Amino acid sequence: MGSYFYHAINMDYTDFVTETSRKSSAVPEENHEISDSRSNPIKTVSRVYSDVLSTKPKNFYEYENFVPKYDDIDNYSLIKKIGSGKYSVVFEGLHEPKGERVVLKMLKPVKKKKVKREIKILECLRGGVNIVNLLAVVEIPAMDLTALVFGQLVVNEDFKNIYLKLSEEDTRFYLHEILKALDYCHSNGIMHRDVKPHNLIVDQENRKIRLIDWGLADFYHPGQEYNVRVASRYFKGPELLVDYGYYDYSLDIWGFGCVLASMMFRKEPFFHGNDNHDQLLRIVKVLGTSELNSYLKKYNIQLVTALQHLLGYHTRKSWQRFVNTENEYLVDSNGLDLLENCLKIDHMERISAKEALKHKYFAKVRKRSGCELGNQSLHVAASCDNA
Question: Would the annotation count 56 as a binding residue?
């Protein structure tokens, strides 16, 4: 079966590697000069789950010397290609011994450290609520390829294809489910760093959703400076766009807030920048230049003069400005309040996933599911129903 496996992926994967290599050779937009190299930004520490990793053994989060356990490649066969991205190509497959359908994510040959990090994080989150379930890892030495094997929902549908068509009830329900996934990973000391509709899959019939693609995820260590070249442009938090590397879990809340805004106002994407500089401009055109300037001053972040001139001056816009006859049935005061608390330029002022789960906007969801939070823990992986 191994030779068949190689043959089946050869054409798709060769084209994939060639294309991604061509893209990576181009100068990325993130290389644009943003912050003044002379600035000495003030470090911040997450106000939630900041010390989680200090309570866990080092082998929970240490991945550089981590050695994954590999399953036998002959246990799997491929059925069809179902998608591809910048760093991977995805196939529907079959686990031959059990006759079960699976999803295989073939990772582009990148730094082994990055591959190990993704595998380690997925193992740490295995069984987590609404998080894609890693079943196995397969190594294909002849192609310098690693494949991640995931469980498959009964129906795998990209959330991006349906999230602007959902009813008001389903909009609240799925947003609540996304927050459960975020609170679970945050409570385990992990930031996703690429929250967007494209990284969610859904089974509408069974009302299940999974947060996928953990390739950019990382463990949160207080005071550590992280790479700002993460997240997709339309969902990048302001901290990334001003080159502030001392961010935390709240980066995921910004991404969630962008998804919330798109679903509520039926506007995709909500902040539609042409490059990183323009993305920041689109944000301040809504949230105001004053809020950004206060943020920069508070954390001693100095933008280059050219970017300051580009941003200009803009007043804060009311969320009501985005309400119209086509989306008003989705909008209420509680929803706007939640949005306001997610899309704060100051990352330290954003609501946490756990706090958002208790927000009034989700009162109907909690009542309907009979899961009023109170003291109930969301972090017991063994009780989670996962694919």
Answer: no
91 CB-contact burial (10 Å; exposed 0-12 / middle 13-18 / buried 19+): buried
Interstrand relation of 218-219 and 200-203 (parallel, antiparallel or unpaired): unpaired
Q: State the pLDDT confidence band at 381, using cuts at 50, 70 and 90.
A: very low
Q: Is 337 one of the annotated active-site residues of the chain? A: no
pLDDT digits (tens, 9 = 90+) for 128-138: 999 999 999 99
Among the listed residues 149, 109, 154, 112, the one whose alpha carbon sits nearest the alpha carbon of residue 13: 109
Residue type for position 71: D
- On whether the CB atoms of residues 174 and 137 are closer than 8 A, the answer is no
CATH of domain 157-383: 1.10.510.10
CA dist 380 and 261 (Å) reads: 30
Give the pLDDT confidence of 14-57 residue by residue, as tens digits: 555 554 444 443 333 444 556 655 579 999 999 999 999 999 99
* CA 135/CA 102 separation, integer angstroms: 9
Q: What is the pLDDT of residue 33?
A: 59
Extents of the domains making up the chain: 157-383
Strand residues in 192-292 grouped as ranges (E): 200-203, 208-211, 218-219
Q: Which of 245, 256, 193 is nearest to 223 (CA)?
A: 245
Among 197, 19, 29, CA closest to 108: 19
What is the tens place of the pLDDT at every residue in 48-94?
Answer: 999 999 999 999 999 999 999 999 999 999 999 988 888 899 999 99
Catalytic residue among 194, 243, 248, 252: 194
